[in-house]
Amino acid sequence: MLRSVAGRMLNPRLNGALVRCSYCTAQTPKHTLSPWERFVVNVTRTGKTGEIPGAVSYETMDKANSRFRIMLMFGMMSFCVLGSVAAIRTGKENVRSHEGSLYTKNRDRYAGENNR
What is the pTM of this model? Predict the structure, then answer.
């Protein structure tokens, strides 16, 4: 037991977590999943296919959260790119039609006021 405690103290990544090793009988503690965490594990395909257990290791949950964060960022970037492309296309269509130009609308509006 003393070797496992000393090993955890020397390695800060493992500090606070029990690790399965050849010289100790302690098992890795499990993290109990909430419904949202269960969804994250399912979407990121981090857990086993099929039934997701009620508890997974902390490493598995950390991996699932990291993957979900990356997926979310890629989704936000793709929506940003698609929105930019849509804005550019609608702007170009308005310029081609000559009706949507802000310059022509303001010119016609203020030209009418100057004639009064």
Answer: 0.57
CB 33 within 8 A of CB 54: yes
* pLDDT tens per residue across span 7-24: 444 444 544 555 455 555
Distance (Å, whole) CA 56 – CA 9: 24
CB atoms within 10 A of CB 2: 7
CA angle 69, 43, 29 (to 5 degrees): 80
Q: For residue 54, give the 3-state DSSP assignment.
A: coil
Mutual angle of helices 58-97 and 35-43, in 10-degree steps: 70
**Structure token digits, residue 80:** 């940003």
Q: What whole-number distance in Å separates Cα of residue 14 and Cα of residue 26?
A: 14
